[in-house]
Amino acid sequence: xxxxxxxxxxxxxxxxxxxxxxxxxxxxxxxIIIMIGYNANKKSFFPIxxxxxxISQVFQGVDKIEVRLHDGLTVDFCREVGAGYIxxxxxTSSDFEYERAIxxxxxxxxxxxxxxxxxxxxxxxxxxxxxxxxxxxxxxxxSIFLPKGLDMNEFKxxxxxxxx
Length: 164
Ligand code: ADP
Description:
Blueprint: E1 4-9, H1 16-25, E2 31-37, H2 48-58, E3 65-70, H3 74-81, E4 85-90, H4 93-109, E5 114-119, H5 129-137
Parallel strand pairs: 1-2, 1-4, 2-3, 4-5
């Protein structure tokens, strides 16, 4: 039986904190599906096609990693693809409290699915997508927080407001 994990998030954008969680989890699973969760009624900062493309570029050639889109509950997606694990990263105690509630409710409703947490590397703790969007929105250079090898020109945006 294959050990398949879902790494869900909005990844708006995918940054080096996310990349690190995926790379550190690779030895633990046979397959990791990075699931970009989206809501057709909610506007994101970066378009879904770009987010999908960037993540696919970062893990190009890594057979164990897939990138997929999903509009709905992560547990439903787990069922659809036969995944037994949900992977999450923990930065702070507030992440822990938030994630704990979701993981425990998921466990009650879907006992066959385990949520696995990895503590972020200390140097990635302050990195979050909101700050990166803010830097980009104001014309700053956020490249040190983004995975290597991506075209930084594609991150430039005009006249769009970052979501909170
Ligand atoms: P969400 O919208 O679900 O918070 P994100 O795209 O912000 O999704 O994050 C997806 C996952 O990556 C979450 O488990 C989150 O805790 C984790 N994560 C976010 N930032 C970091 C970071 N700097 N280091 C490690 N993990 C992180």
